[in-house]
Write a structure and sequence with these properties.
Distance between the termini: 253 Å
CATH architecture of one domain: 3-Layer(aba) Sandwich
Strand order of the largest sheet: 3-4-5-6-8-7
Strand content: 5-15%
Number of helices: 6
Helix content: 55-70%
Structural class: alpha/beta
Shape: elongated
Order of helices and strands: EEHHEEEHEEEHHH
Largest sheet: 6 strands, mixed
CATH topology of one domain: Trna Endonuclease, Chain: A, domain 1
Length: 383
């Protein structure tokens, strides 16, 4: 057993060893806590003091650094100002040059705008017209077929732009199929400049089965070849949401030769483009034909000259042969004449001999040895 005396009232208590140890540990724990708390408070106070001292030192250091920085900043500012001065001068010069260039560019732009203002306005009006046509196209097609629209568009400018052109419905179905319209144009000599087979395709938005432009390429190409047209053009309202076909004029010659797909607003422009290209081609063709004709004329001249030369050589060859033959004939004739001459000379000798004999011929000689003839001549003489 252990005794514990209360420090306030002086009363003594007896407790067992385990309780005593427990109380002792509690007392020691309280003392430790109190001592720890006191030390913590002292440490806090010391920390605050140290912090104040450190803060004071830092403040002094900061002031020192500020003063140094002020001096450094002044030096730096002077150095920077000296370094910046030529750069600023260069900058100012560049700014002035830039302003001059901008003013010059603006003047040029103004001049160009004034120069091409009329052309730009015309293009803008054309663009707006095409945009308006495209916007109103679906409304315009109500109560009017696509074929009628193209026919009317062409007839509006026929006499001004295509006075001698043929643009009519293709009514020839002898081959089993036909296109919608055929465009042909010839020059004054009747030479064909260009020919186009047109097919027009449209469909209502309520149509259940939607067609594609490509569905009609093969038949259009067949019609073009059968009607002997140079180009094939599909004027189409199909695939209205297609970015490809909405660009206006689409060249599909990678599938079928000389074939184009256009929206209705590009119906007249495609005719104009192809026709102008054909006119240029026609010009070059005529020049080429003229050159070829010149080449043919030269070739014919050379051929005629060679033929004449060959004929002349043959004539000379034949004449040479005839000349040799004539010489041979002449030599032969000379020999014959010589023979004739010799014969004539011999004949002259015979004649001379005969004449001598004739001179010696007398009646006496004739009647010599012939009494009958002698008697007859005698009678004649007497008579």
């Amino acid at each position: 057993m252990s005794e514990i005396k209360c420090p306030k009232c002086g009363t003594t208590f007896k407790v067992d060893d385990s309780s005593y140890a427990d109380i002792l540990s509690q007392v020691r724990g309280a003392e430790f806590e109190a001592e720890l708390h006191a030390r913590l408070e002292e440490a806090k106070k010391q920390a605050v003091t140290d912090q104040k001292l450190s803060a004071a030192k830092l403040e002094a250091e900061i002031e020192k650094l500020k003063n140094e920085l002020k001096n450094t900043d002044t030096e730096k500012k002077l150095a920077i100002a000296e370094a910046i001065a030529p750069i600023e001068r260069q900058r100012d010069k560049l700014e002035n040059d830039l302003k001059l260039k901008e003013a010059e560019a603006k003047a040029n732009e103004t001049a160009l705008v004034e120069k091409y203002k009329g052309a730009i306005e015309v293009k803008n009006e054309e663009i707006e017209r095409l945009k308006d046509m495209k916007a109103k196209l679906s409304t315009k097609m109500v109560g009017e077929t696509l074929e009628q629209h193209c026919q009317n568009s062409f007839n509006q400018i026929r006499m001004a732009a295509f006075p001698s052109a043929y643009f009519e419905k293709d009514n020839d179905a002898r081959t089993g199929s036909k296109g919608d319209y055929i465009f042909r144009e010839c020059d004054e000599q009747g030479n064909e400049i260009i020919s186009i087979m047109f097919e027009m395709k449209n469909e209502n938005e309520t149509t259940a089965t939607k067609h594609k432009n490509e569905d009609f390429f093969k038949e259009l190409d067949k019609d073009r070849n059968e009607k002997k047209c140079e180009y094939a053009v599909l004027v189409s309202m199909l695939e209205a949401d297609s970015e490809l076909y909405n660009t206006g004029i689409v060249d599909v010659s990678y599938k079928y030769e000389k074939m184009y797909v256009v929206r209705p607003q590009f119906f007249i422009p495609i005719i104009t483009l192809l026709r102008n290209a054909a006119l240029n081609s026609m010009k070059y063709k005529k020049e080429l034909i003229a050159v070829k004709n010149q080449d043919v004329d030269i070739s014919n001249f050379e051929k005629d000259m060679n033929d004449w030369k060959d004929s002349w050589l043959n004539t000379m060859k034949n004449a040479g042969k005839k000349h040799v033959e004539a010489i041979e004939q002449i030599n032969k004739a000379i020999k014959d004449l010589e023979k004739t001459r010799d014969a004539l000379i011999l004949s002259d000798k015979h004649l001379a001999s005969a004449e001598g004999k004739l001179d010696n011929l007398t009646i006496k000689r004739l009647t010599r040895g012939n009494p009958t003839m002698k008697k007859k001549f005698d009678e004649l003489e007497k008579a």
